[in-house]
Amino acid sequence: MSLTINTNRSAMAALQNLNATSENLGTAQNRISTGLRISTSKDNSSIWAIAQSQRADIGGLASVKMGLDRAQSIGDIALTAGQTISELLVQMKEKVVAAQDSSLTVVSRSALDADFKALLAQIAQVVRNASFDGADLLDNSLPGGLQFLADAAASTTVTLSNQDLRPGQGIITLAATASITTATLAAGALSLLQASIGNVSLALAEMGAQLKQIENHNKFVGKLTDAVEAGIGNLVDADLAKESARLQALQVQQQLGAQALSIANQSPNIILSLFRNG
Q: Is the pTM of this model over 0.90?
């Protein structure tokens, strides 16, 4: 190899190797600091695009889960209120059966009727208070029920049906103005009351089944979110143990490269010895 002061090929090669090592070192440091093997589209455009698409799905699933959590809360309130109404109807039946005793005095019958009407009024009160976040499934304010998103594409839904538990309506057929002041009225009320108890039980069974479906789907959405997050991690997460070992190796290479460049830069000094006086 010829000696020249204009072109130092050894220094050029050493500098290129040092730059490459420094670039690799920067990549390793970035992976360790971010925890990601692919943090931008520049690292791997196709994998980054797939990961971004899956992250968007996770955002959609988070919204779905939020809606399902709300559905569970609305349904739980309605179901609790419905069970309370069912218990009140059972208590009312006790009053109605007692009111059919023809030997009752006027005072006793009036007392039974007062208790009966108080229980009936309490049912109406429970229905009015069975709301969560402005949604009440028991007062017919939502005749079509409520539908909640079931997937991130917003293409399917799950439903909570309306159950109108107001007195005098389709489920509780006993009128809000019902009375048991006579044995005849008590007999008529008993027939309606027995039908109402059965209707309420069926309505609560339907609501319970829908709530169980929502609860199970909510759990599935949570597991699906975890699985998608794990899938994204498989695509873009860095192996930190591997990167740590690589970082140490690159640091050594960088030091050696700097020394090699320093040595290569000293090569032109040899030319000076050729021009010294003997």
A: no
